[in-house]
Specification:
The complex is a heterodimer of chains A (362) and B (309). In chain A, strands 1, 2, 3, 4, 5 and 6 form a six-stranded mixed β-sheet that branches. Chain A is α/β, with parallel strands linked by helices. The chains are: A alpha/beta (362), B alpha/beta (309).
Chain lengths: 362, 309
Amino acid sequence: MTKAYLALIAIDVRLAMRQRAVIFFTYLFPLVFFFIFASVFGAGSNPGRAAYVVTMSITLGILGNGFFGAGIRAIQEREMNILRRYKVTPITPVPLLVGSMVTGWLVFMPLIVLVLTLAHTAYHMPWPHHLGSLFLFVSLGLIAFRSMGLVIASVANSMQEGTILVQLCYLPMMFLSGATVPIEFFGRFVQQVAKFVPASHLVKAIRAILLEQQDIFQNFREVGALILAAIVGLVLSTKLFRWEKEEKIQTSAKLWIAAIILPFLALGAWDVYAGKSLITAPVFGSAPKRNLTGLIYHARVLVDGKVINPGGVLLQNGKVLKVYEGQPPATEWMRAQPIDASGKTVVISNGQMVDPSELFGQ
Amino acid sequence: MSTDAAISVNGLKKSYGPVEAVKGIDFEVFEGEVFGLLGPNGAGKTTTVEILEGLRPRTGGEARVLGFDPERQTRQLKDRIGVCLQATNLPEKIKVQEALELFASFYTRHGSPEQLLKRLQLWEKRDAFYSTLSGGQKQRLAIGLALINDPQLLFLDEPTTGLDPQIRLEMHLLIEELRAEKRTVVLTTHYIEEAERLCNRVAVIDEGKIVAMGTPTELQQKSRGQSLIQVLCAQPLSKVQLPQWPGASKSSLNPEGRTLTVYSNRPADTLFEIMRWLDQKGIPLEDVHLKRPTLEDVFVELTGKHLRD
């Protein structure tokens, strides 16, 4: 049966590459959003924001890949009587589901490499410290959300039903998770609601890996929820798998979708109870106060009669910690709030900034 | 044709809720024969075949296919049979050869996709996308997929439905080749001529029951329907009193007096007597036509319905 798995994966990858819709929704669509977000949120002026834009693009990619790439495609194959042709052969649903999962992963991973490279080269985003953690977490996310798509395909009796169910899951996840609108922009109540949205935890952990240099173990709760969702989803999609459109499933079966969302609901409930925020490292919002750590970059630094142009300054509690010649090192971007000096002069005397109000606007 | 049964079915039943689709049928299919299941839409033939293919569970009765119980030994059975279903599809962008290679990977043993492509006259189309194939080419590929594991038993479920006459003829030739190779074929159809031409034996199925079974000739002979004898004479027979020929039930002449039409349930006897009578009268013949009852006539007689109802 190994040859069946390999043959299914090989043909699925080839078919995916031959579909214009797959190319568009897997690569072009997230890339278009990447550049739009980068422009709207000022990724060029702040590598931290560039990292957030990467988070948004990856999350949107995972959602699209899961709900449309796995879910809608599985319904299409059943509606078009393609699965019926497989039914008369000795294979079970497992190779088909595994094939779909592996293909989704193989097709999606180049996008991660692409957006990371673009963010690094175009917007100076430093490479993540824990690249392996990022790939592992994104892979887990992809498997969990593809499982979600496959469960929807299993409980939908028609393409119409499937489209409604997908949109009911996709739209809240798109708009309430931070995948399109940063969580910082939401009011307090919506931020609480967002904690129950599965994709919010995807955004939170990817953001933590990219912005705060965290590894996968520091995000064990999100990892646990994804693993649970993936297991529940794969078991359910195997058990509820239907080869033919004529095989209808009871309306009550749609409640199984709740089962796969359950780990995220539990995580959300815990976050609300423990008062944990989805925002651990603010990227957006008001200008930093003097007592917070800040990283001034793209500045003309005048220190002890010496001019450094371009230069950078790391501040903590209003005191100058370090002066950099040229661009500050990548790791510092994540430890401090980046402040674009836009070529203005920063004067440092006795370890203090002289007249910082020009930069901080206060 | 062997007398060993490739399929044996006893009291097979299938219900969908309160609806009984198959009402306790019995039949055997022998190795190497083409066995036809003939019936109108909704008669229960596809349900019967899908139970035998291991695609649906039965409600009652017994079934053995190649020695396997289709409900309990489904995977072993599917590995050994070939199936060409009604209304199936493949992904639009899969190439013909890729499809055969993919399906070959599902079986423990398989034939050569290249040889099949040549045999099915699809070699030129091996790199064509499925969506670009004509209806006939798609159907030939469907048969190719059914043959990829070199099965001794094939189920062909209405393989020519919806195809134009030329392509249907191509499919008939292909099925005749399969018969010549001594493969066992179960063919469901609602085309009379298909069953008459291709099947060694036919079971007529209606409303979930087998109403008649035998070779097409046996079924025709069982019919109460009468044969039609038409004799075209060289001279008119007008003003002649027609005798009562043996077996004949009705005799008539056309207005011109040259065409004699006789209905008979013993056509051989009747025809012999007509020939003798005409010879005695010294009337030369131009043509003789004998039309036996068709399977369609048999079907109408048994069920009160036409096959395309």
